[in-house]
Every structure is written in structure tokens, then in C-alpha cells.
Amino acid sequence: MGQRQKRRGALWIMSIEAREARQPWILLAPALTAICLLLIVPLMFIVVYSFWLKSAQGADTPGFFLDNWQEVLTDGFYRDILFNTLKISAITTIACALLGYPAAYFIARSKGNKLILLVLLMLPFWISYIIRTMSWINILGVSGALNSALIWLGIIGEPIQMLYNETTVILGLVHFLLPFMVLNIFVSLDGIDTNLEDAAASLGATRWQGFLQVTLPLSLPGLAAGGLLCFVLAAGTYITPVILGGPRDAMFANLVYEAIIRQLNWPLGSALSLLLLIVLGALVLIYNRYLGMAQLAKGLG
Amino acid sequence: MGWRLIRTYTVLVYLFMFLPIAVVVLLSFNANQFGSFPMTGLSTRWFEVLWNNDAIMRAFRTSIVLGLMTAVISTVLGVLASLALVRYAIPGRNLITTLLIAPILVPEVVLAVALLLFLNFLNIGKSFTLLLMGHVIFTLPFVILVVQARLVSIRRDVEEAALSLGASPMQTFFAITLPLLMPAVAAGGLFAFTISFDDITGTLFWKPGGIETVPTQIFSMLRNSISPEINALGTVIIVLTVGLPLMGAAIARKLSTRSGG
Lengths: 301, 261
Fold this sequence. Notes:
Chain B: This is ABC-type spermidine/putrescine transport system permease subunit II. Chain B: One of its GO terms (biological process) is transmembrane transport. Chain B: Keywords: Cell membrane, Membrane, Transmembrane, Transmembrane helix, Transport. Chain B: InterPro entries: Bact_Polyamine_Transport (IPR051789), MetI-like (IPR000515), MetI-like_sf (IPR035906). Chain B: The chain crosses the membrane at residues 12-31, 64-86, 98-122, 128-152, 173-197, 230-252. The structure holds two protein chains of two kinds. Chain A has two domains: 1-49; 67-300, MetI-like (MetI-like fold), CATH 1.10.3720. Chain A is built from 13 helices and no strands. Chain A has helices at 2-49, 67-74, 76-109, 114-126, 129-140, 145-152, 166-190, 194-202, 207-235, 239-244, 252-262, 266-291, 294-300. Chain A is flat and about 95 Å long. The N and C termini of chain A lie far apart (58 Å). Chain B is mainly α. Chain B has two domains: 1-43; 53-258, MetI-like fold, CATH 1.10.3720.10. Chain B has helices spanning 2-28, 45-51, 54-87, 93-105, 108-121, 128-153, 156-164, 169-198, 201-206, 214-222, 228-258. Classes of the chains: A mainly alpha, B mainly alpha. The interface between A and B is large, with 82 and 86 residues.
């Protein structure tokens, strides 16, 4: 009797343990299922789809054809736009760093109103991306603020078309991405002990030397995280070039949109989006190899 | 000297960020017939035009319904997953975390294409359902990041105290953990709503013909030229998107002071 009760007790504890072990998986199940079904499996699916062929009419032909990949990898048109996209993203990232670093430094080292300054800079981040992008038309357009001002000042007689070129695309991207850069640099600057700069100064370094040899190297992880975010987000946009760019300023994501939505060439569109994923994924992996994801998570949180 | 230079530079950066937005707000009150410079006076006529524009009002309703549903689903999924990740020792935690924030790491265009093609293969074409699923997927990581950060700071002891006093795990969650977690739940939900409301990249791929959200509606109106109504709409959105999070932050603060967190 006593024996049996003990055994039953042991069974009961085991079942609690089993339940304890099961519980986290029950909690995780909805989210993991969603991610797997709506992201992981679809990504694998377009890998398969990129080897199919578009047929003139009706359903695409399943199979293993290398045609799409051959077109994507050898056609000079796609290569030029890919390189141009990487160039635009690189210029955008550098511009964000040059604009964002001093601002982040100012916020991190200012006394008292640090939080207000930071929230203020994050405000545009909350304001609709499309509104912020189109707002440049109000400024640089033919009847925009700048042209009106120049005419009023008598500098020009006729309005100049300043919009719809590569520069305005970059301008729009910088305006969109700058808060990401500032936030990441701020997080890493804010974590640096200011005594280090004082120590450098007491050892005879000028402020500028102290900055170059102490603060700047210590803030590089934040700069790198911000840079990665800016670059990846810039390289994936297609709305900014459509609104602020000319007919010849298409970026790589515009090619994907053209292939999928306009030409309905889904196999080709799959190959194009995978190429973009591979190029940007390689960048993320290189970053992860040398700096790790922790810094990035810090900036996002 | 150097500090003053940095300050001036920072002021210029802030101007760069805010000037275009200020111009949108300014022009939306423009009396000029074409809504452009030079301004001829102040008027609210563009807001009336906006109010009477059926297409925009419909887009507004769609965006709000979509945003609310996205926020509710993402927050529920996100809170459950965060509980598992923070409160239990589970094997392969790093891999699971990476999986859960993967939608941020994949460029949105690629995510949009993959989801569209796969669900179409399953005979779920462009529809509101597809739109909703897409929005849930890319807002989920943000909710998880926000909720997880808060959950880590809630001490285990309070939950254990409730359990030792005889409360069931369910009761403990609803009476102790959830109230303490509320600010993060509200912040996560608001985050999800804002991201969903603002999204255009994925939405253009997923939306069926005939359904427009606010961003896609603005996008299609931009094709012709910038009409003053768009500036008025911009002003409304700016007030909403800046006002709502501020209000949310205020509510969150009130809730957290009341519950002593």
C-alpha cells in the first residue's frame, strides 16, 4: 500500500516535470508556427520557385531550370543596377554617419536634457515614411519652398527642376535612415565612461587627440551597427526611388517589384529577390562574424 | 569653441530632420488654390476636402482595422513567446531567438515576395488575410524585443510568492505578471500598430486590387502631382502618429506608477 502510494507520488511528480518541460513549447508554439509557416517555408519555397520557368500562359512550369539564375547573374542590366544600388546605399550610410556622429556625440555628452533631445530626434521615426519622403517634393519641387525662395530673392528667374535624380533619392534615404544611425551611435557613446577622456586629457592629450584615440575607437561598434542597419534598409527600398528618383534611378528592389507585380514573372522575381537576400545576408554574416548581434539588439531595444 | 561647433552642427541636423515635416504642416493650412508657394493666407479648406474624400476615408478605416488586428495578434503571440524565452530554461534558446527576430533581418521586399508566392501556391491569393498575416510577421519581432526587455526586469520572487500562496500558474499570470507587464504590452501593441499603419513596402505586394491603406492611397495620389489634400492628410497623420505614442507613454507611466512597477 505504502509502496504503491509512493509510486503514485513519483508518477505525479514526473507528470508535473513533464508538464513543466512542455509548457514553454506550448507558449512558443503560436509564434514559432507563424514564423516558420509565413517566413521560413516561404523563403525555401522561392528557392525552389526560382528554378521554375514562366510559361507564356497558364501556370508556371515546375522543374529544375537554370534560365532565371543565368539571366540574373549574367545580364549586364541587372548587374549594373545591383552595383548602383550598393553604391547608393554606401553613400547613404556614409552621409548618415557624417551627419549622425556629431549629433549623437552632442546628445550623449549634453547635461540634463539628454532624453528630450533623443526623443525629439526619434519623433520623425514615428512619422509616416511616405509622408516624410514626399515632403521633399514640397521643398525641392518646381513650385516648392526652395524655388520660391530663390525666385523671390531674384537669384533665378525660372524655377529649376531639382527633383527626380540620384541625389534626391540619397537625400530621401538619409532623411529616412538618420535616426537609426544616431540611436546606435548614441547607445555606444552613452556607455563610455567619461573619466576615460579626462584621463587622456590629464596625460597630456588634447581634447581632439583624446577623442580620436579613446572615444572614437570605443564607439566604433555602435557606428558599425548603425551602418549595417542603414545599408541593409537602404539597399532594400523601392518606394524612395519611385517618389524621388527619375526613370533611370531604379534600385534593385524596383526590379523585384517590376518582375513580380507588373510582368508577373514570378520565377524571375524569386531569383532576383534571392540574389538581394544573398548579397545583404553575406554582409550581415560578415558583421556577425566580427562584431556579433548583441550590439544590434542593443540599438533596436 | 569645439563644443559650440558641435552644437551648431547638431542644430542643423535637427533642422534637416524637421524642416520638411514643418513645411508639410504649413502648406496644409495654405489658402493658395494650388496648395503651393507662395502662400496667400491661412485656411482649413484642405481638411474639409480631405474629410469629403471617400477614397481616403475608406483607406483610413482599412488601415485602422488592419493596424488594430495586427497589434492584437502580434502582442498575444509576442507575450506568450517572451514568457517562454525568459521564464523557462529551454534548449536551443539562441536559435529560437534568432528565428523569432528573423523577419527584421530579411529585407522586407524579399519577405513580401516569399509570402505572396507561397500563399498563392496554397491558393490564398492577395487578400486582407494575406495582408494581415504579412503585417503580423514583421511586427512580431518588435513586440518580442520590447516585452522581453521588460519581462527580464520583473522579479521571479513575486510570482513565486503567489504560487506558494496557492495560486495556480494561470491565476498568477493574470493577477501578478500581466499587470506588471502591462506597460510593455501597451508599448509593444502600439509599436505594432504604428509599424502596420505606416507600412507600404510589403502592403503594395499583398493588397488586393480595390483595397487601399493610407500609405498606398497617398502613393497612388502622388503619381499625378502633390495635391494640397496630401499635405492635409500628412498633418493629420503627423498629429496621430506623434500624439498617439505620447498618449500611450503617458498611460503606460500612469499604469506603472499605480501598480508600483
